[in-house]
Automatic annotation (TrEMBL):
It is a multi-pass membrane protein. The keyword Transmembrane helix applies. It is found in: Cell membrane. Its main location: membrane. This is Na/Pi cotransporter family protein. It comes from Billgrantia aerodenitrificans. Keywords: Cell membrane, Membrane, Transmembrane, Transmembrane helix. The keyword Transmembrane applies. The lineage of its organism: Bacteria, Pseudomonadati, Pseudomonadota, Gammaproteobacteria, Oceanospirillales. It comes from the Bacteria. The chain crosses the membrane at residues 95-120, 163-183, 204-222, 242-267, 279-299, 319-337.
Length: 583
């Protein structure tokens, strides 16, 4: 064990040394080439701005984006349109992809709807190329970046709430603008550096080479926008020929699948299916675009002439090409969405049987946004509720089938009780309830995204509900021990216990059917009042031992606490549902 620890420490130390050497080499190169340093700084600022922009949009959307996307997934055409529009607004296909994974993992949407949403996100990401080609390369963005940076920096550290989110948005846009301007300066200064004019795409191996360049660049930078920005800037400055630039754009599309794959590695089966759909769509689209590169380039020239673009407007033509081949991919793949979903469901089947302690919906992908995390917790809390109901049926020595689904009958309560047939609640609690509760609490602790007050209140309600259900199970454990001690037909407490068991079973049945809170507690309260009066009478008549009377009083009290806890849980759930509906 010590040797393994030493080996791991040695590998970690070697990796750190290599990282330091790489950092020193990169620093030396950038110091010797100011033009390259300007280009790298611009790229870094652009990526930082994208990150801040995504964070600000998450904060400001307050769950609106989630609900908007969720509503759209019911129809494939609408899902594609909304996915494209949402991606165009937030300028992050990765965010939309991860949200779609969250919906599927949480069981909120079916796989075909999420696949259509993903197709739309791919189309929406092409608007980034249009914005960069239209504004980013034509205007002095540094002039606009400085006021945005000043306002964003001051607001981010001085304001709170939604105003801080707006400040983060301004800061992100300012960094994007400054990054684009720095990259333009870097390419303009790099006139005597590396030129790619020799690879004009006139040989068969040129185009796959540039597709590979686009893939590698997107994987390294984790942003197709950054790859397209580099490509557009190099194209505008004459560093890169037109056809190779188109091939790089195809490669950038393929590279975006890495984000989806990485997000699915730690997620569940549903997220892996969606990541598979993303990979298949992008690979098919890229293959078709690469085979039809020359015809598509000709079509771009024709369309550019029709709309009045100059013959040498290469950046705008690249943006048009980017949109065209993504549209082509959607047209080709849209009719095959059901078959694609079926193929992925067969390729990534659900586990035959989940271990009792394993959460089904708490995937890491659900942590990407507060609403999807709350939805996943809601689903898992309902599973915990169902397990708690079954344990509470065992606590009152009745099969679940006699309690849940139809009103419990007196005959089932009066049946002979075999104590050996009812294992202790604690063992089953440790096996089925506690591990799931632990996963729910740990999932909530891992949630590290901005929360609105309504979202925080919803998560707190879910946690409180789970804890109350556990409290009810613990009360049922105490009650079960007394019921088992007096389970014999001749026991002086059997009659009272049967009344109490039937009352609790009736309350559980009404709770499962979501009846009014007053009707849930009513049967137990009626039994409690009746037997308090009956106890006093039997004690006066010396028909009941005081020791047994005190045991029954305690059982009545435990039953009252049990049903009160369940009623409070039910009322809190109703309040949370109403609050969620209103907000």
């Amino acid at each position: 064990m010590a040797e393994a620890t030493d080996a791991a420490g040695s590998r970690s130390s070697s990796r750190r040394r290599l990282e330091l050497l790489g950092l020193a080499a990169a620093g030396a190169l950038l110091l010797s080439r100011p033009d390259l340093a300007t280009l790298a700084a611009g790229l870094g600022l652009f990526l930082w701005g994208m990150s801040l922009l995504e964070e600000a949009i998450k904060w400001l959307s307050g769950g609106t984006l989630d609900r908007w996307l969720y509503a759209a997934t019911r129809h494939p055409g609408r899902a594609i349109g909304v996915g494209a529009l949402a991606t165009a607004l937030v300028q992050s296909s990765s965010l939309i992809t991860l949200l779609a994974m969250s919906f599927v993992s949480a069981g909120l949407v079916a796989l075909p709807g999420a696949i259509a949403l993903l197709f739309g996100a791919n189309l929406g990401t092409t608007t980034g190329a249009w914005l960069i080609a239209t504004f980013g390369l034509r205007f002095d963005l540094a002039h606009y970046a400085m006021p945005l940076l000043a306002l964003g920096l001051l607001g981010r550290y001085r304001l709170s709430g939604p105003l801080a989110g707006i400040a983060g948005l301004l800061l992100g846009i300012g960094l994007l603008f400054l990054g684009i301007d720095f990259m333009k300066l870097g390419f303009e200064a790099w006139q005597d550096g590396l030129r790619l004019d020799g690879l004009a795409g006139d040989r068969l191996w040129h185009w796959p080479l540039f597709v590979a360049i686009g893939i590698v660049a997107t994987v390294v930078m984790q942003s197709s926008h950054a790859t397209l920005l580099l490509t557009l800037t190099a194209l505008a400055s004459g560093q890169l020929p037109y056809l190779p630039a188109l091939a790089i754009a195809i490669g950038a599309n393929i590279g975006t699948t890495v984000t989806a794959v990485l997000g699915a590695l730690s997620a569940g089966v549903a997220a892996r299916r969606l990541a598979g759909a993303h990979v298949i769509f992008n690979l098919v689209t890229a293959a078709v675009a690469l085979v039809l590169l020359v015809p598509l380039a000709w079509l771009v020239d024709v369309l550019a002439e029709l709309v009045g673009l100059a013959e040498t407007a290469w950046p705008l033509k690249l943006a048009l090409f980017h949109t065209l081949f993504n549209l082509l991919g959607i047209v080709l793949m849209l009719p095959w969405i059901p078959q694609l979903a079926s193929l992925l469901e067969r390729r990534f089947p659900e586990p035959a049987r989940l271990p009792p302690s394993q959460a089904r919906y708490l995937d890491s992908s659900a942590l990407n946004h507060a609403d999807t995390a709350a939805a996943a917790m809601e689903q898992e809390c309902r599973r915990l509720d169902r397990r708690a109901y079954h344990l509470l049926c065992s606590a009152i020595l009745l099969p679940s089938a006699e309690v849940i689904g139809h009103p419990p009958q007196r005959q089932a309560v009066a049946a002979r009780i075999d104590p050996d047939a009812w294992p202790g609640i604690d063992a089953r609690y440790q096996e089925r309830i506690k591990p799931l509760l632990t996963e729910i609490l740990e999932f909530q602790a891992r949630l590290d995204v901005p929360l609105t007050d309504a979202q925080q209140a919803r998560l707190d309600e879910l946690q409180e509900r789970s804890l109350r259900m556990v409290e009810a199970v613990r009360l049922g454990e105490v009650l079960q021990r007394s019921l088992l001690r007096h389970a014999a037909p001749a026991s002086p407490l059997r009659e009272a216990h049967d009344d109490l068991r039937l009352a609790i079973a009736t309350g559980l049945n009404r709770l499962a059917e979501e009846k009014e809170a007053a009707t849930i507690a009513a049967p137990v309260e009626e039994v409690r009042r009746h037997w308090q009066h009956e106890l006093a009478k039997r004690l006066r008549e010396h028909r009941l031992d005081p020791w047994l009377a005190s045991s029954l009083m305690n059982d009545l009290h435990q039953a009252g606490r049990l049903i009160a806890t369940l009623t409070e849980t039910f009322c809190a759930t109703q309040r949370a549902d109403i609050h969620t509906h209103i907000t």
